[in-house]
Amino acid sequence: MIEDILKKCERIHIEANMNNTLVFSTIALVGYMGLIFYLSSLPGDLPAEIEVLEVPRTVMHVGEYAILGFLMNLVTTKMSGRAFKSVFYSSVFSSAYGVTDEIHQHFVPTRCFDIYDICADTIGGILGAVSLILLLALVRRKASAGSTKEAHLAGK
User: Fold this and answer.
1) What is the crossing angle of helices 57-80 and 2-41, to 10°?
2) How many domains does one find in the chain?
3) Alpha carbon separation from 79 to 23, 76, 86, 125 (Å, rounded)
4) Which of 17, 125, 132, 135 gets the most CB atoms within 10 Å of its CB?
């Protein structure tokens, strides 16, 4: 009976941690989307601090949306629990956000709608979403290799 209570408490603790992770991931995602919106609202090409980097605009779009795809996939993975499905959804949502960002830029002075930016945003979103899955697979592989090694050492 006590074992059942302990198992139930452990399950509640795990579910609470998963909910906390989902909340923090969602806050990070929405905050980052707000940052993208803010930067897109600035008239001109780029703020002077960023322009100093001399990185091609396309590369910046891919990087910017790779972070968005990563964060988006973090949220969708927590919600769906399925890796491939979450990659699909987060890629689609990141791309859609890129389209809305370009529409928004159409109304900002000295900014314009650019189909090539949408392509770069889509590629970045896919790369970010896939990179989370690869990172999770790597972490799981290392964790299982460590537990196998510990079990092997305990057996000797």
Assistant:
1) 160
2) 1
3) 11, 5, 9, 18
4) 125
Contact by Cβ (8 Å): 85, 52: no
Structural domain harbouring 101: 2-155
> Residue 122 and residue 115: Cα distance in Å, rounded?
11
Tell me the DSSP string of the chain.
-HHHHHHHHHHHHHHHHHHHHHHHHHHHHHHHHHHHHHHHHSSSSS-HHHHTT---HHHHHHHHHHHHHHHHHHHHHHHH--HHHHHHHHHHHHHHHHHHHHHHHHTSTT----HHHHHHHHHHHHHHHHHHHHHHHHHHHHHHHHHHHHHHHHH-
- pLDDT tens for each residue of 75-106: 998 888 888 899 999 999 999 999 999 999 99
